[in-house]
Amino acid sequence: MATLSTTFTSLIAEALHLPSTAFDRFFDEDQQHKLKIIKYPDLSFLPKDKQSQQGVGPHKDSMLTSYLLQASHHRGLQAQNLSGEWIDCAPIPGTLVVAIGQGLEALTHGVCASTTHRVLSPDSGEGPRFSIPFFQGVSYDATFEHVDIPVEIMAMREEILRERGVDKRDDVEFTFTKGKWGHLGEATLWNRVRSHPDVGERWYPEIWKRIREEQGEKKDDVAVVERGNREGTDGWKSLGERIGVFK
Questions:
Q1: Average pLDDT value for residue range 183-211
Q2: Is the dihedral of CA 39, 175, 194, 245 positive or negative?
Q3: For residues 164 and 159, what is the distance between their CA atoms, to the nearest angstrom?
Q4: 191-209: b or e for each residue (b if 16 or more CB lie within 10 Å)?
Q5: In whole angstroms, what is the distance from residue 31 CA to residue 1 CA?
Q6: 42: number of Cβ within 10 Å
Q7: What end-to-end distance do the CA atoms of the chain give, in Å?
Q8: Using one digit for the tens of pLDDT, what is the confidence trace for 150-171?
């Protein structure tokens, strides 16, 4: 799987009119990757107060690419399209589902958009769902920088977005923003804490506290925007004062 993943990212590089080795500097010579086996019990095995259809909430993977073998017949994996709709990724025998991570989106100036996805638990009586994801690792010490995407590729991206004529809707915030992080490892850790809040709160309480503070500020901004829409000029002036446009 390690060879498959690096071969795949080299093909992505070639598709972007880059050398096949364009992403090699982001990997360690003895790069570690991660693979795990996941079991999603059907709802009949869960306590009644925890019988949520959500097996894994909406999220984006951290690294460059990840590869999922859906090892049972169950549906449940869904990906979000640009319109914000959730699309079923039905299992197809002998295939892998490939997801683009936030790291690759950051490195390619957004040309390779990270995949927002989630998992729904099987209904009662359907039995457990099994999946085997492989997460391509990157060097945690790699500096946070872009690769030089050719101008024609960037122009192609903008043209496609204009033709679709939709504003991208996404249930998950993109967190791998250049300038916020010094290394890919730092951004990855924050993304993991954000995705697994119970673990993050226990082992990385300071990071979790800062994440909660950021989330609270964003909720406040959304509330102010909604108020601005309701109240007109005065409401928008309040937002301007908050972000420093009006003093």
A1: 84
A2: negative
A3: 9
A4: bebbbeeeebeeebeebbe
A5: 12
A6: 18
A7: 55
A8: 999 999 988 888 887 756 677 7
